[in-house]
Design brief:
- Helices cover 56% and strands 11% of the residues.
- The chain is mainly alpha-helical and 128 residues long.
- The longest helix is centred in the C-terminal third of the chain and has 21 residues.
- The protein starts with 8 loop residues before the first helix and ends with a helix.
């Protein structure tokens, strides 16, 4: 049980240690919450690549790329294989499926919103 007494409202945000928070490596959804990891996945989407290519293309530091790749690999979103002296990374499409399926549930909403925007634009054009 978490007890914090004698604190004012302004202190509360400093003491969220009692609240459990999912680690970025706990699942694919948490892992892709980080924009640079999404950039890496986008870059790897069409072709497997070594770390050096990712570093150069995304203009990131090598240790940072390696850290992000480790997180993506730990949750299964990327695969690594040795090719000579290099490790080559590729996207694991099967592991990305739950992300795609979740996002696609909003596709109908997006289409509906775009249709409303189109209808309003056409209405304005007719009136103007």
């Amino acid at each position: 049980m978490c007890k914090i007494s004698g604190l004012t409202y302004s202190h509360i945000s400093m003491y969220y240690f009692c609240m459990a928070r999912a680690a970025t490596t706990s699942d694919a959804f948490n892992a892709v919450a980080e924009p640079r990891r999404r950039d890496i996945l986008n870059y790897l989407a069409l072709q497997e690549r070594p770390v050096g290519d990712i570093v150069a293309a995304l203009e990131m530091e090598q240790p940072s790329v390696s850290k992000h790749l480790r997180v993506l690999k730990d949750v299964g979103l990327v695969r690594a294989r040795r090719e000579g002296r290099q490790i080559v990374y590729s996207v694991n499409a099967e592991a990305i499926r739950p992300l795609h399926e979740w996002a696609s549930t909003f596709e109908r909403l997006w289409r509906h919103q775009l249709l409303k925007v189109k209808e309003r634009a056409e209405e304005k054009t007719k009136k103007g």
